[in-house]
Amino acid sequence: MPTVTKLLYQNVMKVDSGQLSTHIIPESNLIEEQHQLRSLLDRNEGRALGLAGGFAPTGELAMLAIADKSTIVIIEFEPKKSKGNEHDERAARVFLTQDLLRRTTGFLYAFDIAPIALALSQTLDLRIANAIDVQCAGSKTRIPLAVVKQANGTTSLAQRAWIAHHLSQLSTMEDRFAQVPPVDTFRLSDEALEFLAKSSKDSFQLEQKKPTEVTRHFATSVDHQNNHINAQANRYQNKIRKGQHQRAFIDIGEHVGRGFTVDGQVAKSRGHTAKLATNNILSFVGKTIGSIKIVGRDDPTQAEVQRAQKVLEILQGLINLEHDNPWVQLIFFSSPRHDFQWPSAWTEEANDADVVKYRADRVSRPLNPSQTKAVKQMLRQSNDGRLTVIQGPPGTGKTTVIASFVQTALDGGLSGIWLIAQSNVAVKNIAEKLADFGLTNWKLLVSKEFFEYWSVFSLVALPL
């Protein structure tokens, strides 16, 4: 596939950038047709360059754009290695590493550099250094970051790389960028980088699985003065979240068999209620609100944002992931090939500990044989019983097993038990089951919003 050259005009920044020469080069042709990228790199030796990554639906890095003020080069990576091109691909990646990704002078600037760095590792087995995350410099540039980040296709990919470079040249940004620690994946071990790359890809795939269109019925009221519709959800899972790229379509009824649809946006979302601002100039007086369809994915949750931030800080060297905690080593970095051993002090402590035995007459609910086996395994304190995996479809009693374990453990003198789940709702379900077992001497840690607006279960929940 030959190199493709286009002339583009960026339309996001209010500056006259002139024509931008954009060259799209397949990786298999990069060595043979490297003059465009070589020219870009040579004239910017020691200077900043902009980067942008394009991802396949499964999370692999599909394209990498490199930009200066007048030129963008986009490298296309093939999802599967082509037979006969292995030598050219190896040579291309050596070229990219030596001349771009590990350049000794001049920083690389990109929006969301962490996913790019990790996809480089997992998709291409490449590392990167001296890379600056643009968002870390603050948002006072008034750039529509959401538009830049969410746009798709080679044209917008080129624009993202060009804008990242443009921002790096602004004198007003110089001090801010100077305070941003650069990303350097060369300093991470293979195990740590493999774990982070897999986690990043998993997060990307989960994000892609979020629905892009949801239609539900809500209890509604109308703010006639502002022509806003207030929609109230009865379940946490059904709440309307605000998204920068969402549109709302509201069915409005008049008489039997008649009605119309208005569109709008989620103006505000808090707790049970979301306020929908409509583009309708007609009055809603005397109208009934039907179903509400939300098109577009929700913005990342607070937990997702914080997780992404921690990953970035690890890549920036602000957090040490090379942890010697045995649990971290076993769960994150170990594999069946490794001869993992628990600390000898833990083994001695387990040998000296009193054995806690399961007794059916001390548990509030009867258990079937598989549940009983699981609780007994969880109660074991020997090295081969420190980690127990319980798998089963909804309704098979996994939460009952957890509560039975806690009840038995407490009855046997154990304490300091932490129950951690992947969502607020899952934590709530466990808490309700504990209360059902008569266990209420605990503290519940959930998000502030969930605690204030959705803790509808009749428990004495103590926020920390």
Structural class: alpha+beta
- N-to-C terminal Cα separation, in Å? 60 Å
Radius of gyration: 27 Å
State the helical fraction.
Answer: 25-40%
Q: How would a textbook summarize the main sheet?
A: 7 strands, mixed
Q: Which spans have pLDDT < 50 for at least 5 consecutive residues?
A: 140-144, 460-464
Q: What is the string of helix and strand elements?
A: EEHEEEHEHEHHHHEEEEEEEHHHHHHH
Give, in spatial order, the strands making up the sheet with the most strands: 1-2-5-4-3-6-7
- Globally, the shape reads flat
Strand content: 15-25%
Number of strands: 14
Mean pLDDT: 85
Number of continuous helical runs:
14
Structural description of this entry:
With 464 residues, the chain is α+β, with helices and mostly antiparallel strands. It is 34% helix and 18% strand. The protein has 14 helices and 14 strands. The strands form 2 sheets. Strands 1-2-5-4-3-6-7 form a 7-stranded mixed beta sheet, with helices on both faces. Strands 8-14-11-12-13-10-9 form a 7-stranded antiparallel beta sheet, with no helix packed on it. Strand 12 and strand 13 form a beta hairpin. The protein is flat and about 80 Å long. The model is unreliable at 140-144 and 460-464 (pLDDT under 50).
